[in-house]
Amino acid sequence: MTRAFRIAPSILSADFARLGEEVRAVEAAGADMIHFDVMDNHYVPNLTIGPLVCEALRPHLQIPIDVHLMLSPVDRIVGDFAKAGANLITFHPEASDHIDRTLQLIRDCGCRAGLVFNPATPLFYLDHVMDKLDMVLLMSVNPGYGGQKFIPATLPKIRAVRSRIDAHVAAGGQPIWLEVDGGVKVDNIAEVARAGADTFVAGSAVFSAADPDGGYRGVFEKLRGALAASGV
Ligand code: DX5
Ligand code: ZN
Predict the structure, then answer these.
(1) Is 34 near ligand 1, meaning CB less than 6 Å away?
(2) Count of structural domains, the chain
(3) Hey, which of 116, 201, 208, 219 would you mutate to test ligand 1's pocket, going by the most ligand atoms within 8 Å of its Cβ?
(4) Whole-structure pTM over 0.90, yes or no?
(5) From CA 138, how far away is CA 44, in angstroms rounded?
(6) Atom 4, ligand 1: which residue's CA is nearest?
(7) Is 44 inside any structural domain?
(8) Residues spanned by the domain of 11
(9) Ligand 1 centre and the CA of 38: distance in Å?
(10) 1 in a domain, yes or no?
(11) From ligand 2's centre to the CA of 151, what distance in Å?
């Protein structure tokens, strides 16, 4: 069976002075959702964008906004992102005091919920919450910056999560997307897909590859071509 693939450009690498145009351009080029990286200069050593920017971008987009919270505490900002038009909200389990509660809070706000794992964060956080997850996000770089190099040790971890999700679904559980974030490019996206990912964040790979007309169709064709040739 062919797996459905989704590509989510991270606006961390977009031109922040033209963010509305940038998200419209990647949607027109075939983005499946917008990956929205939220950093707080506390959980991660960088500071980016919050609910106000999410709300400002929402009218520019038809596709879902995939909010990746790299911040602590988590719970008090969830409602603000839901009101700002977020569709998925993911957080790092070690940044929340009550993981089950935070997942439920996200779903109660009408969003899809997910957990994010840094390259060295153990997967045991999945143990008791599989039924509350819509997505697992595996970081393939350490969080904080765009444009870093993919960490190959993440590949076995992707395979491990793919096995857990497949077993969960085979046992009658709900579908769970498996997203990979960090250093995903045209030349490694097929390998990431073969390891088990179905959803791919691509920041610098997309936004550093504008077409002469300012669009992004060329890089989406290359990413989709590599996925189509992956054999998955
Ligand atoms: C890193 C962010 C990523 C990052 C991806 O902390 O979560 O989403 O922007 O950017 P690239 O694709 O350039 O590694
Ligand atoms: Zn991210």
Answers:
(1) no
(2) 1
(3) 201
(4) yes
(5) 16
(6) 146
(7) yes
(8) 6-228
(9) 11
(10) no
(11) 15
